[in-house]
Specification:
single chain; mainly beta; 3 domains; three-stranded antiparallel sheet; 2 helices; 14 strands; 10% helix; elongated
Length: 236
């Protein structure tokens, strides 16, 4: 009975260590359905134990962990808990400034031509998809998701050609649908405005509001004549 008690204490200690790293992942209220009793050559089954007071207890693995009971006893029946399995609950591992979450020993991809072009939503490894994808994080939910490299590197943009209809006597507003409000130190670097092929200066020769580029008219420095062509390029 002493041996059984020591094994029970050890098993509970291991499960406690696992719970430390995934405190937000496990069910902490209500009951979890008891799995079938472990038999030889069984997986994901409950190990039935008796403590030193005669109380019957069960140990089982759920939520991303698996258990396996040996095919044949080797001095006693051994059930092993191991990492890997199906998540049954949303699982969050919290890192902070003192404790980092990291994976060592990852292989470096050196050939970009092996990037996946046929990845499938929620596909298991070894499925129809080939090549590699990029793991990303949904900031709203924290969920880890995947993205094809071509989508990650894809560049979207807006391009507008505007021709001045008559000689201007005031600022000229040009509609650029989809253009966001820009700031001089950040997103303004993505906007390029040209008058007859000559690049204009942000904040001096033109101003920007949402969906609009305004050419700052100046009879001396920046006149706008009929037939002038303004090309606007914005890289998202």
């Amino acid at each position: 009975m002493k041996t059984i008690t020591n094994k029970l204490k050890l098993a509970l200690a291991v499960i406690g260590l696992l719970a430390i790293g995934t405190a937000n992942a496990q069910t902490t209220t209500g009951d979890i359905t008891q799995q079938a009793n472990a038999t030889l050559n069984s997986s994901n089954t409950a190990v039935k134990l008796v403590d030193n007071k005669g109380t019957i207890k069960y140990l089982q693995a759920v939520n991303g962990l698996t258990s396996f009971t040996n095919t044949t006893p080797a001095g006693g029946v051994i059930t092993t808990w191991q990492l890997g399995g199906v998540l049954t609950d949303n699982t969050y591992i919290t890192a902070d400034a003192a404790k980092e979450f990291a994976l060592d020993g990852l292989q470096l991809v050196t050939d970009a031509s092996t990037a996946s072009t046929n990845s499938v939503d929620r596909e298991a490894h070894g499925g129809a998809g080939t090549g590699f994808t990029v793991l990303i994080r949904d900031e709203a939910s924290g969920a880890v998701q995947k993205m094809q490299l071509s989508d990650l590197l894809k560049v979207d943009g807006i391009r507008v050609d505007y021709t001045q209809g008559a000689n201007a006597a005031a600022d000229v507003d040009i509609t650029v649908t989809g253009l966001p409000t820009l700031t001089a130190l950040t997103t303004a670097a993505k906007l390029f405005v040209y008058r007859n092929g000559v690049k204009l200066r942000f904040g001096t020769d033109f101003a920007v509001t949402a969906d609009t580029v305004t050419i700052t008219y100046s009879a001396t420095d920046l006149p706008m004549y009929a037939g002038d062509v303004v090309e606007i390029q914005y890289i998202k």
